[in-house]
Structure to design on (268 residues):
């Protein structure tokens, strides 16, 4: 990986109020989700990760060595029974939920051309990426209300801009932004916000058997106004802030974290 020059610094997690606070992170065993979960741990909190990949989940616990401050449950966010078990398991173990990060979803943004796209594929993407957010909020909200907690939904810059043949992914992420501001009004004082990540490099944030060194060029980094592509701690730092009391007057918002790419004029 090319080391970018004159790049923005890597963020550090905020600390202070976190000991004893419990945060659920879906899709938390790899990539952006792992970066968020790790940021919660670094801030002093307790994290419960849910993921379909048991190998990746167990690898996180082995790597973090956080003792009782980290737990893993197998989770399929598209299935209500699985979501219910995940939330109930966290409550049995820790008796509280202070934060929920809805990160799990189908990461590949591309689908078949719309004329050829299978209805089942469309429904699967929407049920996972958007339906999973609904299910996790539905089951975690009673505990979040008791703790005066907060929710962070991980959307995407693709909610605002697209490549060809990405309709299902864009629709799911755009729907997530609308769901975010609607739930913020319904669920208050529980705060609900969304993060729109841009290009986040996750090659070295995967489970050990899939981990590899990122291969980015100087041109890849130079596309970003900050001088580098993103990494999971960029999203983790903002998630920790939005979950904390420092963001106590922020709700219903979606915040783009893309190194400035969405603000850059593009010409062919």
């Amino acid at each position: 990986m090319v080391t970018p020059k004159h790049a923005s610094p890597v963020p550090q997690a905020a600390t202070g109020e976190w000991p004893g606070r419990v945060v659920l992170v879906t899709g938390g065993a790899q990539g952006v989700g792992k970066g968020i979960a790790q940021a919660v741990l670094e801030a002093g909190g307790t994290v419960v990760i849910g993921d379909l990949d048991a190998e990746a989940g167990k690898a996180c616990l082995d790597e973090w060595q956080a003792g009782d401050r980290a737990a893993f449950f197998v989770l399929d966010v598209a299935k209500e029974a699985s979501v219910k078990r995940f939330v109930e398991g966290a409550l049995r173990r820790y008796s509280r939920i202070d934060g929920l990060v809805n990160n799990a979803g189908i990461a590949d943004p591309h689908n078949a051309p719309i004329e050829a796209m299978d209805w089942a594929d469309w429904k699967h993407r929407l049920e996972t990426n958007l339906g999973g957010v609904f299910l996790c909020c539905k089951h975690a909200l009673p505990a979040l209300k008791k703790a005066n907690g907060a929710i962070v939904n991980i959307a995407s810059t693709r909610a605002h801009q697209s490549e060809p043949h990405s309709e299902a992914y864009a629709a799911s992420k755009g729907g997530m932004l609308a769901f975010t501001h609607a739930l913020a009004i319904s669920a208050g004082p529980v705060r609900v916000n969304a993060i729109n990540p841009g290009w986040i490099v996750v090659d070295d944030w995967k489970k050990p058997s899939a981990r590899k060194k990122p291969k980015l060029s100087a041109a890849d980094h130079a596309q970003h106004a900050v001088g580098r592509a993103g990494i999971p701690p960029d999203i983790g730092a903002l998630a920790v802030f939005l979950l904390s009391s420092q963001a106590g007057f922020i709700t219903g918002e979606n915040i783009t974290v893309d190194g400035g790419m969405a603000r850059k004029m593009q010409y062919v």
Remarks:
- Strands lie at 22-26, 46-51, 70-74, 99-102, 150-154, 191-197, 254-257.
- The chain has a mean pLDDT of 91.
